Amino acid sequence: MKERLEKILGDALTQISGGADPEQIRIQYLGKKGELTAVLRGMGQLSPEERPMIGQLANDVRVKIEEALDKANEALKAKQLEEKLKNEKLDVTMPVSPLATGHHHPLSLTQREMEEIFIGLGFSIIEGPEVEYDYYNFQALNIPENHPARDTQDTFYITDNILLRSQTSPVQVHAMETQRPPLRVVSPGRVYRSDALDATHSPLFHQFEGLVVDKGITMGDLKGVLDAFAKKMFGENTRTRFRPHHFPFTEPSAEVDVSCFACGGKGCRLCKNEGWIEILGAGMVHPFVLSNCNINPEEYSGFAFGMGIERVAMIKYGVDDIRLFYENNQRFLEQF
Ligand code: DAH
C-alpha cells in the first residue's frame, strides 16, 4: 500500500510538472472516484497497527498533490494574464485620425484683444442691455426727439419708447447712474440698425464703448489713451490723427484715424491710398450728459469713445466684406 501511495504521488507530480490540466489531475487523483480516494477507501482492510502509518502517508500524499496543483494553477493564471495583457497591448505611438478642434471667432478674438488692452490701461469691463429705453439710447445722450442724429441711426423700435439699442453709448448713462466718479469703463456688445446687409453694413454688429469721468480729465487724456490703444492693437509704429467732428453727446467731438499699418501711411489698397484709416468716434462728454446722470459738470469732466468691433477686425485682418463674419463659412473661419 505504501508503494501504491508513493507511485500515485510520483505519477501525479510528473503529470503536473509535465503541464497537464490541474483540474483534470485533481479529478483523476483526488476526486470521488480518484486513485488516492480509492486507496483511502481500502484503509478499512488494513490492520490497526498499519492504519495510522498509512493514514499519515496518504494524507501527506494528498497535501503534496494539492500543493503542486495550487502552484500549477497559479502559474497557469499568471500565464493567462500575461497572454491577455500581451493581446491588449496598446501602441501609444500609433497615429490617430485627426480631430477637428473648434476655436474662437475672429470677432471674439478682436473683442478679447481690445478688452485686454483696456484692462491693461486700468479700465473695467461692463455690459448693458440690448433692449433699451429711448431715454438711454437717445435722450440722456443729448439726442432729443426730432433731433437729426436719430435719422443717422435707423433704429428698430419695439414700442414708442423701447428699442434695440443702436449704439453702445447708452451704457455710459447706466455706468454714470450706478457708479460715482472716478469712472474708467469699456463696454463691448451688440447693436442694431435697420440697415440693409451689404459689404460694409449689417443690421446687427458690435461696438466697443469707452468712458472716463474724473476731476480734471482733458482731451489730452483721450489722445493718450487712444494712441496707446492704437499702438497695441495695430503695431508700435501706428500714429493717430484726430479730425473735428460732431456727436450730440460729446463736445468737442472728433473722428479718429490710425496711420495705415499696411503701408505705414504711404497709401495702399487697405487705406484706399489715404495713408489713414478711420476707426472711431470720440470726444469730451457733453456737460448735458453729465448733468443728466447727476454728475456736476463744474466739478467733473470726462471723455468717451466708440468704435465698431467689425471695423477693427476688418482692418486688422484685411477682411473686405462684413458679411464674412456672419456666414460661418468654415474656410473663412479656419484662417484665424
Ligand atoms: N455712438 C457713436 C456711434 O454709434 C460712436 C461714438 C462716438 C461713441 C463718440 C462715443 C463717442 O462714446 O464719444 O456712431
Give a short account of the largest sheet: 7 strands, mixed
Structural class per helix/strand content? alpha+beta
List the helices and strands in order. Answer: HHHHHEEHHEHEEHEEEHEHH
Kindly provide the radius of gyration, computed on alpha-carbon positions and rounded to a whole number of angstroms. Answer: 44 Å
Spatial gap, N to C terminus: 91 Å
Counted beta strands:
9
Ions, cofactors and other ligands present here are:
3,4-dihydroxyphenylalanine
Uncertain spans, ≥5 residues at pLDDT below 50? none
- Percent range of helical residues: 40-55%
Proportion of beta-strand residues: 15-25%
So how many helices?
12
As laid out across the biggest beta sheet, the strand order is 1-4-5-9-8-7-6
Descriptive tags:
binds 3,4-dihydroxyphenylalanine; 12 helices; seven-stranded mixed β-sheet; 41% helix; 336 residues; alpha+beta; two-stranded antiparallel ribbon; 9 strands
What does this structure look like?
The structure is a single chain. With 336 residues, the chain is α+β, with helices and mostly antiparallel strands. The chain is 41% helix and 19% strand. It is built from twelve helices and nine strands. It has helices spanning 2-17, 22-30, 35-41, 50-88, 106-120, 134-137, 149-152, 170-178, 219-234, 287-292, 309-317, 330-333; strands at 124-125, 131-133, 162-164, 183-192, 204-214, 240-247, 250-259, 276-285, 301-308. It has a seven-stranded mixed β-sheet, with helices on both faces. Strands 2-3 form a two-stranded antiparallel ribbon. Helix 1 (2-17) runs parallel beside helix 4, helix 2 runs antiparallel to helix 4 (50-88) and helix 5 packs across helix 11. The chain is rod-shaped, with a radius of gyration of 44 Å. The N and C termini lie far apart (91 Å). The model has no long low-confidence stretch (mean pLDDT 92). Bound molecules: 3,4-dihydroxyphenylalanine (DAH).
